[in-house]
Every structure is written in C-alpha cells, then in structure tokens.
Design brief:
- The structure is a single chain.
- By secondary structure, the protein is of the alpha+beta class.
- It has a single domain, classed as 2-Layer Sandwich (Heat Shock Protein 90), CATH 3.30.565.
- It contains 3 helices and 5 strands, in the order E-H-H-E-E-H-E-E.
- Strands 1-2-3-5-4 form a 5-stranded antiparallel sheet, with helices on one face.
- Helix 1 packs antiparallel against helix 2 and helix 2 runs antiparallel to helix 3.
- The longest helix has 21 residues.
- It is globular and about 45 Å long.
C-alpha cells in the first residue's frame, strides 16, 4: 500500500500534505499520540522546504509519499527540488538553555528527530529526499 501526493510548495497547501499523511497513518492503526507526532514531523519538514528551499521567484513542487513500513510502521518520503540542504547535518539546539539564551532555529528538526523512529536525508538527482519512519508502539 503506497500513496503519493504532489503540491505546489506554498503554505496554503500545508494542511493538504499533513492531512494526507495523518489519514494514511490513521488507516494503519497508529494511536492518537503517534498520529500527532507524525503530523508534527511532516509539518516541520514541509514548512522548512516552503520557507527555505526555493528562491522567492521560484515555483516548485513538493512530493510526499506514504507507504506501510513492515511490519508495523509508516514510511514517509518528502521530495523537493530546491536548494541542497541536509537538515540532519545541523547541530541540535541546546534545549537546556533558557529561551532567551538559545540560538534561533533548529528546534523543528530536533523535534522531528525525537518523535520519529528514523529520519534520513540524501540528495538524489538534484532533489532533496527526506525519509521519516515511525513504528507503532503499544
């Protein structure tokens, strides 16, 4: 079972992306808590792409595919055609610092890595490919 969607890289399409992934994950039997974690992770990846991957004048697409990850998980692959950027290469923020002492940025990727079981990035044929994997837990 696999589903793929393609949308313009615009914030107005964010709910379409996250809703699609949420519904697919729900059909696999994920708990409400896990569904919210999956939605948060996908939202963070998509928002970063929309905000930073394309020069202001560029219009491009984002592709999101969802598939069942055996035996009990979901694989979400997000593909964009923007500027090469490995979100996993960034240093994790120091979450022990007071808010006013923390550097701006990086918290969304940090949260994504914390709520998903696996997160991968690679650059393929001029595309950024980010893969998120979440397994069901009891």
């Amino acid at each position: 079972m696999k589903e793929m969607l393609t949308f313009k890289a615009e914030l107005k399409n964010l709910e379409s992306f996250t809703g699609h992934v949420y519904n697919f994950a729900a059909s696999l039997g994920f708990s409400n808590k896990q569904l919210l974690q999956i939605k948060l992770a996908v939202e963070e990846i998509i928002v970063n792409i929309i905000r930073y991957a394309y020069p202001e004048s560029a219009e491009s697409d984002i592709k999101v595919s969802c598939s069942k990850e055996n035996p009990d998980g979901i694989r979400i692959v997000v593909v964009d055609f923007g500027i090469a950027f490995d979100p996993l290469a960034q240093k994790d923020p120091d979450v022990n610092l007071e808010l006013e002492e923390r550097a701006v940025g990086g918290l969304g990727i940090y949260l994504t890595k914390k709520v998903m079981d696996e997160v991968f990035y690679n650059r393929e044929d001029g595309k950024n490919v980010t893969t998120l994997i979440k397994r069901q837990t009891v």
